[in-house]
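Handout, section B. The chain below has 396 residues.
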Amino acid sequence: MPSWTVHHISKAPAGLDAPDAWPLHGAQRVTMARELALWGYADLCYPAPYLLADLKAQPYSLRRVLVAVPSDVTDPGADDVVGFAKVTLPLKDNLHFADIELAVHPDHETDGVDEALLDGAERFAAEHGRTSFLTWSDQVGEPDPGPGVVEAPTGSGRIRVDAHLPQVLLRRGYVLEQAERYSVLQLPVDEALLAEHHARAAEKAGPDYRLVSWTDRSPDEWVDQVAVLETRMSTDAPTAGLDLDEAHWDAERIRTWEGQLADSRHGYLLTAAEHVPTHTLAAFTVLRYPLDHPWIVYQDDTLVLREHRGRRLGMLVKAENLRRLREVRPGAVRVHTWNAQENSYMLDINVALGFRLAGVPGAWQKRTAAADAEQTAAPAAEQAAEAGSATAGVGA
């Protein structure tokens, strides 16, 4: 098997033309090839400008980019990169946690590149005191039940665990915790359909709620309320067995996030539902888009606070945001979104609006703390054994 050298990029280059920016261009090349091979489009790749902004120092997370090149290459450049990882370490909360994203060029999927990147990513996380690692496996569509397929512990979503990356993760002690549904909405949405959903949701919500919308910067009047919604997003959204605690947001953190988006050449469109009697925000949804690629849109956070559920506010804010998207991004072709498979309420809204299943990624977690060793050993072994036989699912 070939051998690989993993280069760590901990500091943002001075610019994309700088000599030390080659890993970012290489990561873009690898992720573009991977996404094209998976989906037939490169909407989900990591552009070099986005990674450059990601690496800039800020107080809420520490990020590191890793790229793998052949070990016999002594003066590597972007074209030598065969794999990419990005590690994100929260700095204000969840100090035990590390998020690891992986991408390997399709020509080298089974050449050990993922193992080399995981070695480097896990070592970096452990050096910073992290004991829970999260990473993802992708798959196109959702497999039928059968040999090599397991159901997520939540009881929703099937993952093919006899594929290459899931096998690597199982050997390394990762456990499948959750399945997500990756869905795509082809634009434009039928105007009559959107108007019908909007009208029905508005009628159900009643006069106690009104909609507010903006782009790129939260009005000072609402920034604290958006921070409340983002904080609640970290606790109210389904997280299955993932070892995540509340992430606290305040106005300063919202402004930092908005600045990062601007630095990475992204904009956003946010619609929220105000509860008029209390002048507070009860629900919100965010669409984000790369400014230099007018056909791409990502559906980011959507949340209805628990105390305001049952009034169709989720449908109301999403329908309104899609209506406004036509004005803000008239050239948009696709909206991409990810939801926990067990979040049936939000999935029903998406299906009604026209989103269609594209894939079912798996969320994999590895706990390294001694206190968790016995807890994780049994599920990992169980999933590995079930990979070779028909199964109805993994026990929670």
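Note. Residues 373-378, 381-396 have pLDDT under 50 and may be disordered. Compare this with the example in section A.
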